[in-house]
Amino acid sequence: MNNIIKLFLLLLIPHIINAKVIATVDYKNVELGDMVTYSLEISGDNISRPNIQRLCGADVISTSSQTSVNIINGNIRKRYILSYKFIPQKSCKIDPIEIDINNKAELSNAIDIVVKPVTEAKNKDFQLILKSSKEELYVGETFKVTLLFKQKIDAQALDSEFLPPKFKGFWIKKESKPKRINNTNFVVTEIVYTLAPQRVGKLNIQKAHMRIASRTARTNSWGDWSPTVKWKTYFSNELNINIKPLPSGVDLVGDFSIKVNVDKKEVDTNEAINITVEVSGMGNLEDVKSFKPYIDGVSVFDEKLNIEDTKLTQKIALISEKDFSIPPFTLKYFDSKTKEIKTISTKKIDIKVKNSKPKEKLIVKRQDSKKIIQKNSEMIELDKITLVITFIVGLIIGILLMLFKPFRKNKKQKNISIKDPKILLMKLLPYRDDDEVKKILDILENNIYTNKKEDYDKKALKEVLKRYKIE
Questions:
Q1: Does one domain contain both 239 and 316?
Q2: What pTM does this model have?
Q3: CB within 8 Å of 389: residues ≥ 6 apart
């Protein structure tokens, strides 16, 4: 039998020599997931290499090339072998490839590839499985997708490459580290993804891929067996998730708790109060809006929301010259378990400011009120001529003041005293994203609240005041 094959090849050699482009594949019949190497053998001195990105509708995974020089009867022949690896998803035909050789277009031969479903026995060695904790949920609702890779105890793998599933339309909130579990028949590797859908509709989680290299043997062109390494790709199942809209007027879904921490409830005038709002729970924390409150007569400075795992925090500083109250912080969300809209909130916090300026209260006795009303009536009944004269005189004085500006020389420009750290801290807080400002603020806060006496760069301070036009 081997002699017949050798004879056939010898008869075929003249035709092969005359062909300038020969296309071959290492396997024409493969199972789904098997890797195929497509090769182009090109003879000629001056060739233009083709740019092949896809074969049989599948992306080319890798490319390689070889060059050799043969001398036949004193004639030098160059030979190029261009190789392209890909994983066909279905049976297909690779059409002829056009290549420019010595300024002449040459075509390769066409090749048919047959892709068969994975056999049950082979699928037992390696398995890739996707599982979802929920098949139907709301926009923003958190859920878990578990990926399991099962390898049979006696299955051999020389190398492997993992391609995770594509979560298009989902936020990836967390990915666990691979966890290895051993049982009687399999070694199982588990990865858990915490996800949240971004939009309404039916969303698809595409297949995960695991490429496995194993040792195999194949027959060469002379009929001999030779060991080789074969790559095969294993695919997981896909997941289809149905996403429903949230009830009207609600942006959050999950289960949350909220609390606020305040560093002190009694301060001196213009001393900062630092509070931290904290929201904990499973849900779309990324949709929570800033808790910055509006309090009459109080300067409020807020930092950006910070999310770590299942906890959201926001730091807020408040400065006032009089007593005030921090209003409750409220959070409204949809509880997907009870199917109810819930509202949670903190309690009001009263802040005492020592040596604060009391509110001026106007107390008018009844007997005095009559005099005030009478006086106001008399003022309203002033002679019109007197009012006109008064207006004209005032207008003339105003014009003279604008022209000559007699008080400009005596007017002193008000500057912030760098000796008053509390006022300076209040003025600089809105610009804490600036690195230079942050350095000065850190020193100021330490000096004020820890009684330290650390010096800051006065020159840098002046530049900051000038840059932000702080007066």
A1: no
A2: 0.57
A3: none
